[in-house]
Amino acid sequence: MTFETSRQAYDAFMGRYADRLAPRLIAFAGVQWGDRVLDVGCGPGSLTEALGELVGAQNVAAVDPSEPFAAAAADRVPGADVRVGAAEALPWPSDTFDVALSQLVVNFMSDADAGVAEMRRVVHPGGMVASCTWDYSGGMTMLRTFWDAALSFDSGTPDEGRTMRYNDPEVLRELWLRSGLEAVETDALVVEASYRDFDDYWEPFTAGVGPAGAYTLSLDPDRRAALREECRRRLGDPDGAFTLSAKAWAVKGRA
Ligand SMILES: C[S@@+](CC[C@H](N)C(=O)[O-])C[C@H]1O[C@@H](n2cnc3c(N)ncnc32)[C@H](O)[C@@H]1O
């Protein structure tokens, strides 16, 4: 499982984006002080922490199937109710929360319809259910550069732009409507992350986090070195620090 990893490995790869995306998703969902909130697929806790700062840790619950990630989120937000589990069978009763959020998760659920239906079940009637996923086919520059480089060697490469089903606002809207959510809205959330140098970009792929990390580890050393150089070339052969932008598609609806 590519998410059975440490917070450090995740942060170097994706956490640097997730930390910046979290306040954007919270604002999009309209979370307010006093709300009781759930973070589904919390990972090592970027969104969990941001929610705790807004509503207080005692009003935050979070769940993730990865034990090391759930443990990291619990360490990061003392007092939050963090559990090991999956979106498709949330371990809370119906009508427990004001808001259920998931950040960068619906594509990893084994059954996204069931997962979103569970998010809807655990919020009060009128409560908010909101998520976001990367624009894998375009605006997520870190991953897009990697997969375009990989495709230049192998047209059969498992490009997340193709393998991730929930990849644009319309499919997210349809998922929300299928789950019976109402007043559904979508938006684009754009964030940036900074890199010290090219190695700061490349090395996190070699820790095996997520589909791109798993693909990197599957390559023999020569192919991996060639992919590294192709990524460097596509990023303009950076000499020193640089910044990449990342676009996510967000969706929200009321139970
Ligand atoms: C890209 S990470 C996002 C983590 C975190 N939300 C963030 O923004 O950094 C995807 C997360 O989904 C979790 N996940 C995978 N399958 C899941 C499922 N069926 N239900 C809930 N979470 C799941 C993974 O363990 C991982 O933590």
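qc> The chain has a mean pLDDT of 97.
qc> done
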